[in-house]
């Protein structure tokens, strides 16, 4: 089950906590993986720990040209692209009334617009090959909202809507498009929480703990597999019961 | 019939699974040949590949019949 031997996967934000776990899990299942991110040294470190079947393409997802170059570069490196994981994400938290235009723009550009451009580029080859898996990493706050994260919540809710629209368009071509929505996961993004915030959050999670990157990664592996062929347009919530839909 | 027209018609027949005699110059991909909007995008991609030419989006929008495709490719393909 969930064998990805010979499949070609591109993971954005691969040096992040969740992105690294996703890249590792896809690779463990046999996939050829292209790691993308902004930090060359971190990408190289991850690539070295994975061993063979790994490529690196640096990309700055807030830059249009860099985004447009990414899918072609990955397709050249791997001679194809079967699985696109739009994982890269940034936060620029601020109270709504104080939020700067650039805080809004940056988050929308990286979290939503880059995912749009990458999916648009990837789906072309996938249509030709009559096979594809696009997995967008959303967030629980895309469904629940979160004070201080108007921009982030909007970007993640946008991903969910985009996932459904694209899923409907390309379903007949054997391409599935899904979303995985993590709750609070141990990662650099949640390491910045102070003890009090952490305790407050734990109180809202029925499981009583933060999730692990690997627990997101295994959901991605499932949706990337041929076994998940009939699942599309779905948002899979992985949040320890924090919100149930 | 030109060589370009032959190649275009072959692609359309293969791609849409229609009878060759239906693929006439004034056949509209969507109305006459049963293509959906995604099929038309794929046809353009197939033409690009076959004729090694790039068809920009605004030009692609003007290609609605078999004849449109033949005319465009005769003019623009190397």
From TrEMBL, chain A:
Stored Pfam families: adh_short_C2
Catalytic site positions: 152
Gene Ontology MF annotations: 3-oxoacyl-[acyl-carrier-protein] reductase (NADPH) activity; NAD binding
GO terms for biological process, alphabetical: fatty acid biosynthetic process
Subunit structure and binding partners: Homotetramer.
Binding site for NADP(+): 38, 87, 152-156, 185
Chain's gene name: fabG
Record pathway: Lipid metabolism; fatty acid biosynthesis
Enzyme class, UniProt record, top EC level: oxidoreductase
Protein name as annotated: 3-oxoacyl-[acyl-carrier-protein] reductase
Origin superkingdom: Bacteria
Documented EC number(s): 1.1.1.100
Domain named Ketoreductase: residues: 7-188
Reaction(s) the record says it catalyses: a (3R)-hydroxyacyl-[ACP] + NADP(+) = a 3-oxoacyl-[ACP] + NADPH + H(+)
Keyword vocabulary terms for this entry: Fatty acid biosynthesis, Fatty acid metabolism, Lipid biosynthesis, Lipid metabolism, NADP, Oxidoreductase
Physiological role: Catalyzes the NADPH-dependent reduction of beta-ketoacyl-ACP substrates to beta-hydroxyacyl-ACP products, the first reductive step in the elongation cycle of fatty acid biosynthesis.
NCBIfam families: 3oxo_ACP_reduc, PRK07231.1, PRK12826.1-2
Family statement drawn from the similarity comment of this UniProt entry: Belongs to the short-chain dehydrogenases/reductases (SDR) family.
TrEMBL record, chain B:
Chief location: cytoplasm
GO molecular function: acyl binding; acyl carrier activity; phosphopantetheine binding
A Gene Ontology biological process term: lipid A biosynthetic process
InterPro entries: ACP, ACP-like_sf, PKS_PP-bd, PP-bd_ACP, Ppantetheine_attach_site
SMART domains: PKS_PP
PTM characteristics: 4'-phosphopantetheine is transferred from CoA to a specific serine of apo-ACP by acpS. 4'-phosphopantetheine is transferred from CoA to a specific serine of apo-ACP by AcpS. This modification is essential for activity because fatty acids are bound in thioester linkage to the sulfhydryl of the prosthetic group.
One Gene Ontology term, aspect cellular component: cytosol
Keyword NAD: no
Keywords (A to Z) from UniProt: Cytoplasm, Fatty acid biosynthesis, Fatty acid metabolism, Lipid biosynthesis, Lipid metabolism, Phosphopantetheine, Phosphoprotein
Pfam family, one: PP-binding
O-(pantetheine 4'-phosphoryl)serine modified-residue sites: 37
Carrier domain sequence ranges: 2-77
Keyword Phosphoprotein: yes
Location(s), subcellular: Cytoplasm
Pathway annotation: Glycolipid biosynthesis; KDO(2)-lipid A biosynthesis; Lipid metabolism; fatty acid biosynthesis
Its biological purpose: Carrier of the growing fatty acid chain in fatty acid biosynthesis.
PANTHER family: ACYL CARRIER PROTEIN, CARRIER DOMAIN-CONTAINING PROTEIN
Family: Belongs to the acyl carrier protein (ACP) family.
Name this protein carries in UniProt: Acyl carrier protein
Source species of the chain: Microvirga alba
Species classification: Bacteria, Pseudomonadati, Pseudomonadota, Alphaproteobacteria, Hyphomicrobiales
């Amino acid at each position: 089950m969930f064998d990805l031997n010979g499949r070609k996967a591109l993971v954005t934000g691969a040096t992040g906590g969740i992105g690294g776990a996703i890249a590792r899990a896809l690779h463990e299942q046999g996939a050829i993986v292209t790691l993308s991110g902004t930090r060359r040294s971190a990408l190289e470190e991850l690539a070295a720990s994975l061993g063979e079947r790994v490529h690196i393409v640096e990309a700055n997802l807030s830059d249009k040209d860099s985004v447009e170059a990414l899918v072609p570069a990955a397709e050249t490196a791997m001679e194809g692209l079967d699985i696109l994981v739009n994982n890269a994400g940034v936060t620029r938290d601020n109270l709504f009334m104080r939020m700067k235009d650039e805080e809004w723009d940056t988050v929308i550009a990286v979290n939503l617009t880059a995912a749009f451009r990458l999916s648009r580029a990837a789906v072309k080859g996938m249509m030709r090959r009559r096979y594809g898996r696009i997995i967008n990493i959303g967030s629980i706050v895309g469904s629940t909202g979160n004070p201080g994260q108007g921009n982030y919540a909007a970007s993640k809710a946008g991903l969910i809507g985009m996932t459904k629209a694209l899923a409907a368009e390309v379903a007949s071509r054997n391409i599935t498009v899904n979303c995985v929505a993590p709750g609070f996961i141990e990662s650099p993004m949640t390491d910045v929480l102070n003890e009090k915030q952490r305790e407050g959050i734990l109180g809202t999670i029925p499981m009583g703990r933060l999730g692990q990157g690997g627990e997101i990664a295994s959901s991605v592996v499932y949706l990337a597999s041929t076994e998940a062929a009939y699942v599309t347009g779905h948002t899979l919530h992985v949040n320890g019961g924090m919100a149930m839909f | 019939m030109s060589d370009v027209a032959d190649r275009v018609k072959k692609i359309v027949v293969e791609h849409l699974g229609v009878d060759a005699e239906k693929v006439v110059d004034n056949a509209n991909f969507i109305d006459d040949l049963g293509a959906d909007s995604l099929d038309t995008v794929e046809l353009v991609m197939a033409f690009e590949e076959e004729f090694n030419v790039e068809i920009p989006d605004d030009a692609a929008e003007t290609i609605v019949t078999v004849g449109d495709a033949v005319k465009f490719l005769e003019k623009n393909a190397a």
